[in-house]
Amino acid sequence: MKAETVISCKNIQKKYGHFELNIDSIDFPKGFATALIGENGAGKTTLLEMIAGIKKQHKGDITYFGSYTEKDRENTPYVKENIGYTGTDKYYFLPHWTLKQTKELQEVLFDNFDGEKYDRLTDELAITAGNAFEGNKKVSDLSDGNRIKLMLAGVLARDTKLLLMDEPASPLDPLMREKLCSIIRDYIATSEENERSVIFSTHNISDMENVTDYAIIIENGTVVEQGFVEDLKEKYVFVRGEKKDEEKAKHILYDMTSSAYGFEGLCLSENIEKLAGMDIDTEIPNLSQLSVGIMRAYTRTKSISSIN
């Protein structure tokens, strides 16, 4: 599948001590929800903060909306006005701010901020009880989940073309995670001519699968796989087999885990015929099986059995 690009990252390099983010090329598709998937410390947050302009010192180039550079992002109001960002910082809003002040400050900062919509969203997301005194509640008094919902209300109250969301589902309860997926779907669907896009990071893969169109899997600061989810499901096959075939299969499968009862793992579709004659079951992998298998093939995390 081909699509226009909303964000393009080329030759990105950034070092932090022993860690290095090294991205050759990513083209985030316009009009879709893209998930950045990886272990904690894989580089997801760093990449999102670069795109958002929070971290500015790095090598390489980031292009916005097909033509704007990082310099344009800082000097051209159009770019920042059309990007909404929610981060993992506990105090994205300063802790001593009241809910009323978060609204007033965003009205000053963003020309496209709709105060009435913000009030409606804070009510719909159950951040407040709808009482007047709630406006005096401080950000520091909110739970982690409600702070995320307050950030969401802020970006959704603006007329933007791109949402950048760093681990938005992590502090949310299951019901609110489902609501988040609906919010993302509605945000994209209500735009004309596929003008709206979402990029979010997650390690709660199963919770966000039904809203993920495009997946980018990052391990150790490097992109190890990317593509539209439906294309990835054609590229790989999930395989389960008997213990007696494990030794032969492990040289063919892309990734494998084993137990006393048998084995399972991912196999490249182009290699599936090499398993002919083995007692196996095959199925189309879900995004969680794809992501975990691919991450496991590249991870530096050691298995429990290998730790003395």
Structural class of the helices, strands and pairings? alpha/beta
What Rg, in angstroms, do the CA atoms define? 22 Å
Q: Major sheet: size, sense and barrel closure? A: 6 strands, mixed
CATH hierarchy class name of the largest domain = Alpha Beta
State the separation between the terminal residues, measured CA to CA: 47 Å
Average of per-residue pLDDT values: 89
What's the number of domains?
2
State the fourth-level CATH superfamily of the largest domain.
Answer: P-loop containing nucleotide triphosphate hydrolases
Count of DSSP H/I helices = 11
User: What portion of residues belong to β-strands?
Assistant: 25-35%
Largest sheet: spatial strand order: 5-6-7-3-8-9
Helix content class: 25-40%
CATH architecture label of the largest domain: 3-Layer(aba) Sandwich
Please count the beta strands (DSSP E, at least 2 residues each): 13
Poorly predicted regions: 301-308
CATH level 3 topology of the largest domain: Rossmann fold
